[in-house]
Amino acid sequence: xxxxxxAGITILTLLSGCQNSCQQVCSRMAKFAExxxxxxxxxxxxxxxxxxxxxxxxxxxxxxxSFGSLSDIESEWTCDDVSVYFxxxxxxxxxxx
Length: 97
Prior knowledge:
Elements: H1 2-15, H2 21-35, H3 42-52, H4 58-67, H5 70-76, H6 79-93
């Protein structure tokens, strides 16, 4: 019975899409940007999440846990900051959107 329980928990964990704290910041930043009126393509969010998969150091993950909540983001960023960021992304990537 115990191996079945462990297997079930493992499968549920894998299916739940668990993300590390820095990957969660990707989704939170996208939400903040959307609240500011920007459209954030899902492939951009996905690329951010993939870029943070396993690559963040323990110290970086602690920083993301400490300062990566939506309220922290809202207190550190303004909609103007997000606009500048997206303007730069468009220049760097050539993406007109």
